[in-house]
Amino acid sequence: MPSISYLGPEGSFSEEALLDYLVIRDQAQGQEQPVTWELRPYHSIREVLMACARVETTYSFAPLENSLEGQVGATMDTLKQADNLLIVGEFVHPVSQCLLTSHPLAWNQITRVYSHEQALGQCREFLSTYLPHAKQVPLASTAEAAREVAQAGSNWAAIAPRRAADLYSLHCQARGIQDASANATRFVLVGQDIPPSTGRDKTSLIITTENSPGALFRVLQEFAERKLNLTRIESRPSKQKLGEYIFFIDVEGHISFPPLQEVLQILRDKQLLLKVLGSYPAAKLA
Description:
Blueprint: E1 3-7, H1 13-28, E2 38-42, H2 45-53, E3 59-66, E4 70-71, H3 73-81, E5 86-94, E6 98-101, E7 112-116, H4 117-122, H5 124-130, E8 135-139, H6 142-152, E9 156-160, H7 162-167, E10 171-175, E11 184-191, E12 201-208, H8 215-225, E13 230-237, E14 245-252, H9 258-269, E15 273-281
Parallel strand pairs: 1-2, 1-3, 7-8, 7-9
Antiparallel strand pairs: 3-4, 3-11, 5-11, 6-9, 6-10, 12-14, 12-15, 13-14
């Protein structure tokens, strides 16, 4: 039975997104009988991805970026470091944050708010308006926050999916508390093989340029000259030297597309650090 690791415990946004993704994946592939998957929760994003790297699971499913809070650093750093992981799919999942408590409380009674750091950031305005006095406590996942509040039974709150309230017998104090209604997270399915081209694909790369004026521009120019559309460019510290950065780039097209192959060869000839993170079907955006 194929298996997928995800950020748990049960009731996390990662699990919610994964369940939706698998249904849509079966429908897109015309599966008459849904594929049976073994879903394995892990405590951290790094552990989720390393489970696939160590072949403990067939795939990993992890958040890559959020429309409000941007990149998920743990995912990007682990993909950079692991040699045998490739993005093989992506899924954009709408996120509606809820404030969960063990029992109904007045705002001024809530003393702590637990959640993943990304969820706390997505609800910054709500927290500053209604709970400025409450201590914010980051945990490994939203579901872990819900479980913590359920076990404590105190005047604490968790920011988590509505489903977590049912799973952990919590009271839903407020719904849709994120700072923007169009809140969404992009998840990636990670494996070890590049899937074939579908005609509507995306390729993800890591590029490190030399530290000189116009170095990044010269790299991007190679894509522009071949009319290759870049859909994402983000930088992360190299963690090798202060002021040194690596660039995560998404480009439309499969890695087998000749113009893209030409660019990659040019960059390799320039002896730039280049890593292909995957080439996979692009998600359909609403």
